[in-house]
Each structure stands twice: as structure tokens, then as C-alpha cells.
Amino acid sequence: MLAKIWLDHAKGVMDKIEQTQMENIQKAALIMADTIEAGRWVHTFGCGHATLPIEEMYPRIGGFVGFHPMIELPLTFFTNIVGGMSVHQFVFLERVEGYGNEIMKGYNFDSKDCMWLFSHTGINSVNIDVALEAKKKGMKVIVYGSAKEAEGKQTRHSCGKTIFELADIIVDTCVPIQDACVPLKNHFDKVGPISTMAFVTAVWMTVTTVAEILADRGVKLYIHPSHNVPGDTTAKERLSEALYEYKRRIAGV
Asked: Is 0.85 surpassed by the pTM of this model?
């Protein structure tokens, strides 16, 4: 069954992340923990399906305040497939050098912040713009993507570097560069991509490590609670507390 083939590939990628990336996940988590403890932001950015791991972090049950999603709507796939804001425009925009600089103008940054970027291949200009601007502002740049598989691919940015070459810390998602992994009879292209599964796996391995570091330091986490547990009479208050803390930090108070 093709379902089993996909599952075997997914399990293999998850095992490879565990076997090869734990040290770098710990390094990334330490930077993020220092940022959150300082009352600052782990900014998160990606394009296309690389926005999905960002949406996993916060707001999300089991997530906590400190992760700031920077999702540019024209660079997501939660838009029209054809017509206005379609795939054609998205593919064009993610390759436009300078667009990322304009995105960065919409936010306030601090050198205590860090930038967490998601990119499968690391070659498109908008992600590289964001990485370059983040470094100019004194932030550490953490990149998750298929770094080893992307080696040798030509950047689309005039700086001459891929996003992996600009990173302070890289966590390799261990996904084949083609992404889709299941061959289909009578077809050239494979089906069943696994990069999103790998991104989300690496995200929660990292975020739980950040939580562990901060809890060990005695730092209070503002966790987004489940509001669906029978008998939990304080979930609404804990949610309000978390959202208030998020709002307080956004306001720079």
C-alpha cells in the first residue's frame, strides 16, 4: 500500500532527525530560551507550506508566549489557487529580491530577539532578505530546512548565499529535496510530501526543549490551555492571562 510507503518514509525522517539533529536543536532552543527569558520575541517566518510550522507554535494549545508569527498573506497557500493571490503570484513574489526588506519594516526588533526561519531549499530571495535584515539588527538567525539535500543549489539572491549559509544555527529536517516520496504507477511525479511533517516534528522537539530550559530556570510560561477539558474551571482565566501577556509584549510594555 502506498499509505505504508509514505508512513515508512515519514518515520525514517523522524528517526533521522532524532539521530542527527538533537545537538543543534538544543543549541537553537538555548538561544530561544534566552530571548524569551529576556521578555523578547522569537520571530518566525516562512513562505508557502513553510508557514504551517509557524502556525503550529502560537496561538496553539500547548504553545506558550514568546513566539511571534510573521506570516505574509500573499506568501501563504491559504489563498486562491488560481485567480487573485494565486500560486502564480506566490511563486513570483517569494523570488523577488527586496520584498523581505519591506516585510521587515512592519515590525519592531531588538538585538535580544532571534529570527527562526523555515525553508525547504533555502534559495528564495524573500527568506534571504529577512535573514540578512535580521543579522543587521543584531539578531541570531536560526534556520530549519533540508540543508544537506540543498547543498549545491544556486541561490536566487544577489548576495550569493543561501539561507543556510547565513544561519547561525541550522537544524536539518532530513527531507529529500524532491519532498514528495511515494512513486505512482504511470506517473513521472511522486506524491506524498513529507517536509511539513518534518518541520512540525522539529518545531515541537525544539519548543518543548525551550520550555524545559525555561522551567528549569524558574521562568513562568504563559501556556495556551485547552478549553475543551471537562471540569477544568480555570482554562478561560489561563487563556486570558496568556493573551494579556502576548498583548503586553507586543505593546513593548
From this structure: yes
